[in-house]
Amino acid sequence: MKKPRYGPLILAIIIFLALLFTPASVQHALISNKKVNQAATSLDPNMFQGIALQQKMMDDKKYLPIFGSSELLRLDPYHPSNYFKVNYDGFTPFLVGRGGMQSLVHFLNFASMSNELKDRKFVFILSPQWFNEKGLDSMHFDPNFSKLQAYDFVFNKDIDPTLKKDAAKRLLQFGFIRKDKNLAYLLRGIAYHDKVNSLKLGYEKALGQFNYRVLIWRDTFKSLSVKPHRPNVDPSLKHLSWKELQHRADLMGENDTKTNPYGINDHYYRKKIQAKIGHLKGFRKHENYYHSPEYGDLQLVLDLLKEKHAKALFISVPENGRWYDFAGVPKKTRQYYYTRIKKQVEDAGFPVADFSNHEYDKYFLKDTMHLGWKGWVYVDQAIKKFYNSPNGKI
After folding, report:
1. Whole-angstrom Cα distance, residue 130 to residue 104?
2. Domains in the chain, ordered, with CATH?
3. Whole-prediction pTM value?
């Protein structure tokens, strides 16, 4: 009878453990500069929920990160990624956002890059729709939540303890996070300093570190599969003045919105609205932005960025005035949001490109809520001014 051979198994375990505890710097070295460049327009959730690609991007000042949500997917020729490809101004936009990525999602992302934030310029696009009474819900948070970034937050010793405690309490409000026993235990340790279970905390931390290391390697390998979106550039936009660009964007918007009086893209209107338009008048009349958990989530972002001396430009996107009048959202409710958000951001020391006076500007938005055509032209202009400002102001 042959004796069992444990050599290969022991060797495999040694190799696994060696890989597991390899320093992150070695893992990040596996990601090429070419891959980072491809990730700039990938809009890939693997990149959003990871760390490696974004940290490597933050180390290269040629990239200007733009954080937001679903508006980043509207890649028309005036979109920053396409416009600044034609009119290069010393930087490449790097897009981080998709639908449901609200302030708390970005907070965890920023926390994972906290050491790279100092004096780093980037853009953060705010959407009014985030700031409803419910704020971020599990349906939108769960698919955008990064367990890797959450573990990185737990083990990050360079975040102000009070801020960390407030963020941990907020994360624990979500049931899907509480169901993760190890992560939830570690978050409760931060939020409540539970001394009764201090002995168990050592075990949970060890388990958490193991999970964290596994996720780091997973992120590294997933980063290698990221692929870019095809560019949608228009070479004829090169060297045009802002006024000429606005005129061109108006013509494109006019051509694309012939089916409705709301300035909504024809394809979107036919697909999402036309068949039920008779039932939609006043359908959002009870919506308000006076009280929302999102204001608190945004404050977490602002406090972290201020603590780390980041240089961020916040874009305040307007709502589609014609559509929101039809939907029944009062103007005073919308104005309350615009005024409050501008004050909140500026009180934290960051500039705001406030476009709230463009609610009724045709072709500023592409549909009921997303930037498009002329809106991107204004955003491009604000980004250019911000990027070229020595002190990060506009």
Report:
1. 11
2. 43-146+242-387 (3.40.50.1110)
3. 0.93
CB 362 within 8 A of CB 250: yes
153-203 pLDDT tens trace: 999 999 999 999 999 999 999 999 999 999 999 999 999 876 556 678 788
Residue 332, judged by CB atoms within 10 A of its CB (0-12, 13-18, 19+), counts as exposed
In sequence order, what are the beta bridge partners of 315? 125, 353
Pairing mode of beta strands 121-126, 352-354: unpaired
- Whole-Å CA distances, 123 to 302, 329, 352, 385: 13, 28, 10, 12
Cβ neighbour number for residue 36 with a 10 Å cutoff: 25
Tokens 């240089």: give the residue.
311
Two structure tokens written together for 347:
């009180």
Which of 325, 330, 318 is closest to 365 using CA atoms? 318
126 beta partners = 316
Q: What sign results for the dihedral spanned by CA atoms 174, 179, 184, 185?
A: positive
Q: Which residues contact 285 (CB under 8 A, 6 or more apart)?
A: 327, 328, 329, 330
* b/e code 131-148 from CB counts within 10 Å (16+ = b): bbeebbeeebbeebbbbb
Question: How is residue 312 written in tokens?
Answer: 């961020």
pLDDT number for residue 391: 81
Asked if pLDDT for residue 72 goes beyond 90, the answer is yes
Cβ–Cβ under 8 Å, residues 122 and 64: yes
Residue with tokens 């008048």: 281
CA–CA distance, 333 with 331 (Å, rounded to integer):
5
